[in-house]
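Changelog-adjacent note: as of this version, every example in the card shows the full chain rather than a window. The one below runs 205 residues end to end.
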Amino acid sequence: MEASSFSYLPKLTVSEYLKLEETSEVRHEFRDGQVYAMAGGTVNHNRLTRRMASLFERQPSLKRCGVFSENMKVEVVRGVYLPYPDVVVACHPFDLRGDNLIIRQPRVLVEVLSKSTAGNDRGFKWQRYRQMPALWYYLLVDQYKMTVEMYSRVEQTDEWIYTIYVEPEEVIVMPRLDLELTIAAIYDGIELIPQTDEGAQEEIE
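Full-length structure tokens:
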């Protein structure tokens, strides 16, 4: 999901930010005391987000986990950075409490790439997501062409393996969660519109 590149409120504490979100009709990303309004996405962005969430929800190995799309905050850096990833898979009981507002120990994060967010998702976000000890997988799903990129954490290390999938018959394997996703299933029935520079918005630094 996209975020506007300007802030319009003084610096907030996390508590003040959470109070703001309770009553706001627009979701905001929190970065070091500043808030950024989340903008709407394309039809394909929405469809791919829902598709990824649905595919995860169907996995028997995740029956004890929770799958959330677009509306759950993740505490990436405590007190500093709380974004809304497009899809979140969390398995820790603390994260799955019914009254919980923030996911703190996600196993999987997914971002569907947009013109204005691809650089941010690969740069700023990835550099911070990879520092989360609980995170095992980070997926980038392209909405303009059949391409999924995945970063997989090497067990008991801070090292990551990068894999790219571009063919419908390829299978994304996540052994630490005992699940597989096919590229064909992700893009099934979705008409891909090639990306152009028209209407591109400025990326967040």
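Structural remarks: The CA atoms of residues 61 and 195 lie 35 Å apart.
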